Amino acid sequence: MGKIFSKTFPESFNFRSCALEALKISPRFFAFRFPILFLLCMIFTVLEYAFVVLLVFSAIFYAVFQTRLFCALGKVHLGNSIRTPLPSVSILVSARNEEAGISKTLDSLMKQLYKGRWDIWIADDRSTDNTPKILADYAAKFPDRIHVLTITELTPGESAKKNAIAKLVQASAGEILLLTDADCILPPTWIRAMIREFEPGIDFVAGHSAIELPKDRTNWLLNMQAVETMAYRIAGTGALAMGTPITSTGNNLAYRRKFFEEVHGFEGVSKIQSGDDDLLLQKLAREAPWKAHYSVDPEAFVITQGKETFPELWEQRKRWASKTTYYAPKVVVILSLVFLFFTLISLGYILSFFSLPIFFATVFGVLVKLVGDTCVELRGLRIFHQQELFKWFLPVEIVHAPFTVFAVLFGIAGHFKWKG
Questions:
Q1: Last residue of a domain, one of 280, 301, 322
Q2: How confident is the model over 321-343, as a mean pLDDT?
Q3: Does a structural domain hold residue 65?
Q4: Average predicted confidence (pLDDT) for the chain
């Protein structure tokens, strides 16, 4: 018996195979002579099959969820609100140390074609660079259009951006509030197109923002980032279409002032560093998810800047993930199951070397994710007129699951940096 055991174990390093081989000879003898190892083998077998069952179950859930997203994307439509007179609009921008891009943002905003009343409110949030001077110059040049609100202090623990937006909402007077970031480029049709989405009963409109890609060179990080970001936009669009608001983006967002006041603004989430967009959407998700809509109108698409280095991208993704535990309960359950699926796939990449059942389950999971993501991504890219990004889809798909898992784990743990 000792010879058989010593020969089998070093070669295979497979506890389950070792146990089964020994049990074929003498179950009682093996359990009596090697009780601890026998117990470990049994535990490993149970865990192995538990892993397989969980992976298959979560893969089936993911397939159903992606199927629902795919079908919901077919219901997406352009807004067609016709209202006379046109509603007044206040554009809100929070800026901190944005001297590099704030001028381009303001120049693009000043070219808006909207015929109704509109103005721009910018919060200079404790900037230490040349941002205050740039804003002062623009405010002096366009006194009836641009208004600057200077913030000099921040209560410890409060979210800087939520604090700035809340103060801008109080200072402004527009019926519809449009939000963007200080490094974005807005098309001249932006206000007009976003306002069209406010059909009767709609209080919240999430817009699309595309990452600007260099025309003179190929940047792998920016291109893969554009595809990954596009995947979030597509998921957000489909989720809103099926009545389950999940995500939006703060650099292209609009909501009624009345809605902001009814949900008491950022009350209850003001100390969460990220989520000036999603967490407001989640307040709506708890009460009336049908009041939210996603704009797929190209005239409302915003151009934003991607992260040029991986450390910058990593910090951003961790920050995005940090707010997910504060979503509506239904959304948390959905995202938790997706996270479980991604985690099991990531672990399966490693454990497959030691277990054939885990290998086959992992292959099944990867195929489910690949097919589901491909179908949803293709349909979404057509809706957003960005089919050219699909050539970068496979490289992103390979690293997507483990990258997401680590970003969520670090983000929820609070391990991220922000200029805040």
A1: 322
A2: 90
A3: no
A4: 87
